[in-house]
Design a protein that fits this description.
single chain, about 190 residues, Rossmann fold, 2 domains, five-stranded parallel beta sheet, two-stranded antiparallel sheet
Length: about 190
């Protein structure tokens, strides 16, 4: 079975992914693949050509500078997606094909619906949190102002819209222990 795992930024999706891995799932992490792709020489060169040399720091992508650029310009965000997504999707499909014997493959893709990749999944699990909690977590985690946190959250499909499309929901407004118990329960239901 292929389980899509999604949620808004700072919803707790990474914690859910780690727990699913501990429980024996094979995880395909789109963010990790994205980092690997963005550090390839060919892609770095293309990013530099399109977004300027200021996004490159000592031969590596400065993700914070690129983030600031793309969240202030919709066309630049679309350009970045057109460069990165075909390569990332190809690597995700390759990993699925190379691990078909796994009992549960989890596609950890924050922008699953935004990128139209839900077709790869048998079921989709969304991790949700209240927007105020989400804003505070993004602000703390990334050391940014409330306005930028809201811009980043606003650039994604709303959690309520994602919930309507997802078969399984986990609310993450409580503590870590509560979240991990929910994940264990859902995992045991999925692999029956």
């Amino acid at each position: 079975m292929i389980l899509g795992l999604t949620g808004g930024i700072a919803s707790g999706k990474s914690t859910v992914s780690k727990k699913l891995k501990e429980l024996g799932s094979y995880i395909i992490d789109a963010d990790k693949i994205s980092r690997e792709v963005s550090n390839s020489i060919r892609v770095l060169k293309e990013l530099e050509e399109n977004f300027g040399s200021e996004i490159i720091d000592h031969g590596h992508l400065d993700r914070q500078k690129l983030r600031k650029t793309i969240f202030e310009d919709e066309e630049k965000r679309e350009l970045l997606n057109s460069i990165m997504h075909p390569i990332i999707v190809g690597k995700i499909i390759e990993k699925i094909e190379n691990n078909v014997e796994e009992k549960l493959i989890v596609l950890d893709i924050p922008l699953l619906y935004e990128t139209g990749l839900e077709y790869l999944c048998d079921k989709i699990l969304i991790v949700c949190t209240d927007e105020n909690i989400q804003v505070e977590r993004v602000k703390q985690r990334d050391g940014i102002e409330v306005e930028m946190a809201k811009k980043i959250i606003g650039s994604q499909m709303s959690l309520s819209e994602k919930q309507k499309k997802s078969a399984i929901h986990i609310e993450n407004n409580g503590g870590l222990e509560e979240l991990l118990k929910k994940v264990e329960l859902i995992y045991s239901e999925i692999i029956k």
